[in-house]
Amino acid sequence: MSGFSTARQKMVDGQVRTNDVTDRRILDAMFAVPREAFVPASRQALAYLDLDLDVSEGTTKRYLIKPALTARLLQAAEIGEGDSVLVVGCASGYLAALTAKLARHVTATESDSALVAKAQGAFASLGLINVTCKAAAPAEGDPSAAPYDVIVLNGATEVTPDGLFGQLREGGRLVGVSAKSRPSRAVIVTRSHGEFGYRPLFDAAAPVLPGLERAAAFVF
């Protein structure tokens, strides 16, 4: 095995499996998709560490969320082979690439145009033809390809993302990290008969996506 392949196997065995991720499709995807391909060359040595990895190209910090949290969110989403999925705030595209191994089609959004180009280049180099990345703020999603069976947030939100809820198909689900209160938690939101049900999954922390921050409180 190459150095990166060995590190990838250690990530899957030491970070992902040990966090109760048992879905074989997700484990296979995480071993197949090279995380280093989505990381700037100067930071590739950090690609498989248990951390939120800064992949910023512009002035706004953008991250790949921790591998274990990535896997647990995907497992909670229960993505089927025929599903249409939206990945919100995809940064350089790693989560979207993993999702493309599980779903029929993936639309990814990212607010940093340089990272959109990075993601598209990585998808092409890996031969992923069922995923595309578009420039858009996280709160906007991509209504043009809605409704979606699944929406996955590549980060946390401090507000209720109503605009994203409306892009879910009947029976669809959204997974991500809610940082509206402390401690922050991974959550799943499901749409049923036009209503939205909310269920906490487990304690989790992730960087807040740009535009999904809580409004600053007025201080006298």
Structure characterization notes:
The chain has a seven-stranded mixed beta sheet with strand order 5-4-3-6-7-8-9. It has a two-stranded antiparallel ribbon with strand order 1-2. It has six helices and nine strands; from the N terminus they run ααββαβαβαββαβββ. It has a single domain (3-203), classed as Vaccinia Virus protein VP39 (Rossmann fold, 3-Layer(aba) Sandwich), CATH 3.40.50. The protein is 26% helix and 26% strand. It is an alpha/beta fold and 220 residues long. It is globular. The relative contact order is 0.14.
CATH evolutionary superfamily: Vaccinia Virus protein VP39
Q: Provide the number of structural domains.
A: 1
Q: How many helical stretches? A: 6
Helix content: 25-40%
CATH architecture: 3-Layer(aba) Sandwich
Mean pLDDT: 95
- Give the ordered list of helices and strands: HHEEHEHEHEEHEEE
Strand order of the largest sheet: 5-4-3-6-7-8-9
Structural class: alpha/beta
Radius of gyration (Å): 16 Å
The tally of beta strands, per DSSP, is 9
CATH domain fold name: Rossmann fold
| Spatial shape | globular
Question: What's this, in brief?
Answer:
With 220 residues, this protein is of the alpha/beta class.
